[in-house]
Automatic annotation (TrEMBL):
Protein name: Uridylate kinase
Species in which this protein is naturally found: Limibacillus halophilus
Binding-site residues for ATP, renumbered to this chain: 13-16, 56, 60, 163, 169, 172
GO molecular function, one term: UMP kinase activity
UniProt keyword annotation of Nucleotide-binding present: yes
CDD domains in alphabetical order: AAK_UMPK-PyrH-Ec
Entries under PANTHER family matching the protein: URIDYLATE KINASE, URIDYLATE KINASE PUMPKIN, CHLOROPLASTIC
Entry annotated with the keyword Nucleotide-binding: yes
Enzyme class name: transferase
Highest rank taxon of the organism: Bacteria
Regulation: Inhibited by UTP.
Subcellular location: Cytoplasm
Length: 238
């Protein structure tokens, strides 16, 4: 570790959609590999890394409920989707020789370890990346909240949200070229102005446990490592 690293233990949340690439559904193996490479670079700097991956590229509980399903059942399907993504990411990381464990909040011992906090800490201490699958294990929550929860449980110094853009803007930067990126925001402002960084329960949990949130572009090569060094373009919420 040196001036390249400002944080010792971090949790990176990636949405399921980030794994789709240009596709409309599911996983793009090239995209999964690209993100795995970003993760490997930061792992190589000696940072302990936890990952939480969403499931929106496969199934979202709210869409299932809108189509007439019972919400809780649809949410369980969404949580299973996150396990699929977690296994794909584990596979990509291990192909790059990065030791990785998946722990699932819904026990399914033939495909992943169950979530056991102290065991997860041990994995990190041994230099393994840990991917938390199945969200919080409870319906009516999101993987953003799961990310804030696990970051709190694992005593992470930083929660990162990898998005399509390089931070939080005052307007949609895709539609409005004059949109301005915030360098810094407070949790309070994000909540009161509903700035859409993460859902409210995730922001509240991070605030309560004093974990800063960095929003950055997962599509920008090298950006994850830059944020870890405290450089580059991103928005920090603290
Ligand atoms: N989900 C849930 N409880 C959790 C986490 C996720 O019920 O703790 C379900 C929920 O239906 C959600 C789906 O899993 O729509 C996929 O997660 P999310 O929408 O957060 O994924 P992302 O948008 O990040 O890809």
């Amino acid at each position: 570790m040196g001036d390249k690293v400002k944080y010792k233990r971090v949790l990176l949340k990636i949405s399921g959609e980030a794994l789709m690439g240009q596709r409309e559904y599911g996983l793009d193996p090239d995209m999964v590999e690209r993100i795995a490479q970003e993760v490997r670079t930061v792992h190589g700097l000696g940072v302990e890394i936890c990952l939480v991956i969403g499931g929106g590229n496969i199934f979202r509980g709210l869409s299932g409920a809108a189509a007439g399903m019972e919400r809780a059942t649809a949410d369980y399907m969404g949580m299973l989707a996150t396990v699929i993504n977690s296994l794909a990411m584990q596979n990509a990381l291990e192909r790059l020789d990065v030791p990785t464990r998946v722990q699932s909040a819904i026990p399914m011992s033939t495909v992943a370890e169950p979530y056991i906090r102290r065991r997860a800490v041990r994995h990190l201490e041994k230099g393994r990346i840990i991917i938390f699958g199945a969200g919080t294990g409870n319906p009516f929550f999101t993987t953003d909240t799961a990310a804030a929860l696990r970051a709190s449980e694992m005593n992470c110094d930083l929660l990162l949200k990898g998005t399509k853009v390089d931070g939080v803007y005052d307007a949609d930067p895709v539609k409005n070229p004059r949109a301005k990126r915030y360098d810094r925001l407070t949790y309070h402002r994000v909540l009161t102005e509903d700035l859409g960084v993460m859902d409210h329960s995730a922001i509240s949990l991070a605030r309560e446990n004093r974990i800063p949130i960095a929003v950055f572009s997962i599509n920008q090569p090298g950006a994850f490592a830059e944020v870890i060094a405290g450089r580059g373009q991103f928005t920090i919420v603290s």
